[in-house]
């Protein structure tokens, strides 16, 4: 068995793992990243691509705001076209009750320092003429937007490699060596990497990686579904979400419209079928057809399903755990982690390099679930 | 004409050269070539270019005997309007 040394082993080649690898390598750390499949092959390549602050839990919002600050310069930083478009995010309302609820949530957003505004029917029509006239208003966050999740994840991976990180795709972590309560190494079928820090960024597979050090992490597995249309002339610039219809869409840079929604199911395990199901697709299609009537004739060319780790409170777990020194969690993003990737990567770097836990993740530490495992 | 300029994926206009470059940089499956270059992401979903990409992967396998992973099939088989999806039937209908 080949043995190599590193400062940090990252388990998981999604946006969280790749962003952590990038910032850690930039800071001079020797990083080895293990990915059982391909880079960006799971949730990071299967989500809708929203880069959003509004609609987040107050504990998560400051982290999202920090991430949007990093997003603005990401193409230059990574030398990559992430297709990031700062074209806003809309939560639209069909009913007066829902608009009232959005107005209340706008007050909360503003109190936390996020710039949002309520649009009436006329302003909404002006902003997105293609939107159905059935919607009486919306909450709009102009600094939100969207990006291409695959390009972004690959961009972080390539930038990490250029900065010196070693990336091992198709290389599954099999066991983690622990000595005197500290992580010491990670083994694959033919490789042993000695390291004093291990980052569990394994998404829906984080539970298995936790068990390698004797932890029982409080995470389930959710499955989401996305459909994509053929490329269409530009029709919708912001990312549009309707909570009432349980549907949302974004038009990507090359014109494809990504359609999502429908019940997000806790499937318990990621070994459950990856196949898409008709009721979920139907719900998303009905919702988006109502949101943007001109998309009714748009042809769907593909659909897919993806898995992500789901925590009991729907918020990520970021930080160290009691009892296993050097083991750091960055998982449990519960289907809304893509936009947070850059900030989480940066904070994991700070945690490891400076030993500093940023106030931005103080409310998101694994410790909020009590002692995890052992 | 340099044969690297040949178009392999017509829907997304991806050339043979771009696909070979991805393979040289480590893309080892249809799925990776697709994610890296967009080949197979277009209207035909790789029905036209999939076998050509597979051939290129095989030709560049550098003695690696493992067969490159084939492309994955996802619904719909042919493009269907969003409105048809909105009326979609249940699996057991």
Q: How would you sum up this structure, described in words?
A:
The complex is a heterodimer of chains A (374) and B (93). With 374 residues, chain A is α/β, with parallel strands linked by helices. Helix content of chain A is 27%, strand content 27%. In chain A, α1 (15-26) packs across α10 (341-353). Chain A is globular. By secondary structure, chain B is mainly alpha-helical. Chain B has 4 helices and 3 strands, in the order ββαααβα. Chain B has a two-stranded antiparallel sheet with strand order 1-2. In chain B, a hairpin with a 4-residue loop joins β1 and β2. The termini of chain B are far apart. The relative contact order of chain B is 0.16. The mean pLDDT of chain B is 88. The interface between A and B is medium-sized, with 32 and 26 residues.
Which key phrases capture this entry?
heterodimer, A: 374 residues, alpha/beta, six-stranded mixed β-sheet, 21 strands, 27% helix, globular, B: 93 residues, mainly alpha, two-stranded antiparallel ribbon, elongated
């Amino acid at each position: 068995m080949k043995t190599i040394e590193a400062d940090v082993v990252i388990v998981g080649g999604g946006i969280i793992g790749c962003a952590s690898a990038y910032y850690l390598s930039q800071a001079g750390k020797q990083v080895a990243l293990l990915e059982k499949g391909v880079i960006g092959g799971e949730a990071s390549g299967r989500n809708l691509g929203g880069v959003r602050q509004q609609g987040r839990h107050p504990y998560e919002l400051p982290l999202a705001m920090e991430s949007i600050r990093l997003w603005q310069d990401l193409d230059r930083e990574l030398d990559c076209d992430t297709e990031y478009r700062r074209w806003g995010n809309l939560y639209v309302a069909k009913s007066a009750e829902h608009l009232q609820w959005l107005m209340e949530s706008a007050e909360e957003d503003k109190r936390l320092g996020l710039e949002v505004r309520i649009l009436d029917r006329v302003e909404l029509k002006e902003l997105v003429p293609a939107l159905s006239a059935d919607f009486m208003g919306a909450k709009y966050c102009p600094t939100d937007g969207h990006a291409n999740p695959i390009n972004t994840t690959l961009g972080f991976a390539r930038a990490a490699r250029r900065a010196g990180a070693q990336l091992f795709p198709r290389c599954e972590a099999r066991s983690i060596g622990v000595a005197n309560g500290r992580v010491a190494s990670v083994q694959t079928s033919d490789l042993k990497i000695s390291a004093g820090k291990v980052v569990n960024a394994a998404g829906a597979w984080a539970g298995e990686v936790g068990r390698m050090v004797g932890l029982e992490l409080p995470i389930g597995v959710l499955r989401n579904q996305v459909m994509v249309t053929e490329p269409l002339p530009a029709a919708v610039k912001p990312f549009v979400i309707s909570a009432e219809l349980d549907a949302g869409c974004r038009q990507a840079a090359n014109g494809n419209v990504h359609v999502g929604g429908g019940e997000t199911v806790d499937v318990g395990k990621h070994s459950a079928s990856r196949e898409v199901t008709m009721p979920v697709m139907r719900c998303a299609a009905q919702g988006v057809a109502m949101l943007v009537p001109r998309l009714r004739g748009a042809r769907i060319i593909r659909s897919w399903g993806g898995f992500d780790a789901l925590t009991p409170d729907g918020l990520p777990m970021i930080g160290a755990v009691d009892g296993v020194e050097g083991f750091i969690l960055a998982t449990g993003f519960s289907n809304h982690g893509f936009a947070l990737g850059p900030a989480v990567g940066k904070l994991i770097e700070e945690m490891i390099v400076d030993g500093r836990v940023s106030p931005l993740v103080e409310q998101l530490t694994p410790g909020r679930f009590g002692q995890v495992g052992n | 004409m340099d044969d690297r300029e040949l178009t392999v994926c017509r829907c997304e206009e991806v050339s043979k050269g771009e696909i070979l470059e991805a393979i040289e940089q480590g893309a080892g499956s249809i799925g990776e070539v697709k994610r890296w270059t967009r080949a197979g992401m277009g209207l035909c979903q790789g029905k036209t270019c999939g076998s050509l990409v597979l051939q290129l992967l095989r030709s560049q396998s550098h003695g690696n005997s493992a067969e490159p992973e084939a492309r994955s099939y996802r619904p719909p088989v042919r493009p269907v309007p969003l409105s048809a999806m909105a009326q979609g039937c249940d699996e057991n209908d």
